[in-house]
Amino acid sequence: MSVIENTGSVVHIRAAEADGNWAPFEAGDRVVGAASRLTAAAPAAALASAGLWRHEAEPPVPYARPNSHEFVYLVEGRAVITASDGTSWTLEAGDMLHVPQGFTGTWETQEDVLKFSVAC
Predict the structure, then answer these.
(1) Domains of the chain with CATH codes
(2) pLDDT tens figures, 35-59
(3) Burial letters 74-106, b for 16+ CB under 10 A, else e
């Protein structure tokens, strides 16, 4: 079976076949800053990925989405996302945010975070 099943508007990316390095994410067993991602090329040259990302508190760092949208669900912690126009959003555990393609700004991790994200 193909890594990607395309049934019209639904795309199913099979974890077991998409990336030889994929393994279930165990939060207590990962290095800070490491990501556990499932990525596969989707139809029409699109790219989809999903994964968990852990990051320690630090001052703002550049954050941009030049080629894809990102849907963020903050599992743990607190972060502030600030757009280049100065608009900011404070994310706390349980919050969700859609970051559109073309976004530029900063990401500030105020309390250690565990982020689940989907980019496409």
Answers:
(1) 4-119 (2.60.120.10)
(2) 555 444 455 545 677 888 888 999 9
(3) beebbbebbeeeeeeeebeeeeeeebeeebebb
